[in-house]
Automatic annotation (TrEMBL):
<dbReference type="GO" id="GO:0016787">
    <property type="term" value="F:hydrolase activity"/>
</dbReference>
<feature type="domain" description="Amidohydrolase-related">
    <location>
        <begin position="31"/>
        <end position="343"/>
    </location>
</feature>
<keyword id="KW-0378">Hydrolase</keyword>
<dbReference type="InterPro" id="IPR006680">
    <property type="entry name" value="Amidohydro-rel"/>
</dbReference>
<protein>
    <submittedName>
        <fullName>Amidohydrolase</fullName>
    </submittedName>
</protein>
<comment type="similarity">
    <text>Belongs to the metallo-dependent hydrolases superfamily.</text>
</comment>
<dbReference type="InterPro" id="IPR032466">
    <property type="entry name" value="Metal_Hydrolase"/>
</dbReference>
<dbReference type="InterPro" id="IPR052350">
    <property type="entry name" value="Metallo-dep_Lactonases"/>
</dbReference>
<dbReference type="Pfam" id="PF04909">
    <property type="entry name" value="Amidohydro_2"/>
</dbReference>
Amino acid sequence: MSATDSTLQPGSNDWLAQVQEAILEPERRIIDPHHHLWRKRLGHDYMLEHLWQDTDSGHRIEQTVFIECRAFYDKEASPERQSLGETRAITEIARQSHQQPDKAQINGIVGKIDLTLGEHPDLLKEIIQAHQETAGDLFKGVRFAGARDSRPEDLLIALQALPYLYGRENFRQGLRILGELGLTYDTWHYHHQNVDFCDLAETVTDTTLILDHFGTPLGVGIYRGAGDAIFEQWKDDIRRLSRCPNVIAKLGGLAMPDNGFGWDKRATPPDSDEIVRRQKKYYLHTIECFGPERCMFESNFPVDRLSVSYPVIWNAFKKMVADFSETEKHALFYGTAARTYGLPQS
């Protein structure tokens, strides 16, 4: 039966509920360092109550980090200050999460700030300070993503960043300022931009750079059927990037429709064994290169929710590293995220 024959919409609760699994290692403490919140995106809302439905589904998710997603912008503000609306909204939601200590706490916010304002350092610092004053200790860093592809029409989520963002000196100046202020930099881009990101990491060495989603190996449009060749180049890029001690790798985000695994078009979602079978090589290669102390598992929900449920994806993560030591597992599921984002470690 194809997805078009089914009455269940891929990504819906009923569609995801078709695959039920026992929770592995339910007592393992977890920080989910990468999720979004929004209204009316990808056909649905994803707010605190929806996040909690996922984080309460069996795994011990204690803390989370919100990553910017262009939601809740203040459209009446100047362009460089519109994202303050998102930081304000998420700060209030995070405070709501703290009122129920038995549920996952949003303890970090990574906002969006235009880092090309590095050529105007006083203005950039003023805007960063405004985010910090809004969110207080919750504000951990900035994501000003570099994703750009020549055929955005082929992609479900097609950010079109400035051409060659990573090589722009005004951006690099902004990135250095971020590091001077003790803030992290998250980024998201596509696999063919990994080389540019390596150049950036080798040049800007005093700022913590966090690579989201493995550099997003694409598998749709012109990249369909090229997975083996892309993987071989990707392995070399990850190995080179891992030599930069200021770079941290997030392990997840490979269930986005644009990765091309096709789960979002099926009548039923994958189980954790299928995820492990088809994706383990990406995870183990990255961990081998970076080491567990510089890797952290991420859900990338609700984007990856279009393909897989929350309990299943975390089961898959646990299966991928089942043979690792307890120290290594703690780093991957909790310690690296806590250290990188300055989260509570009690």
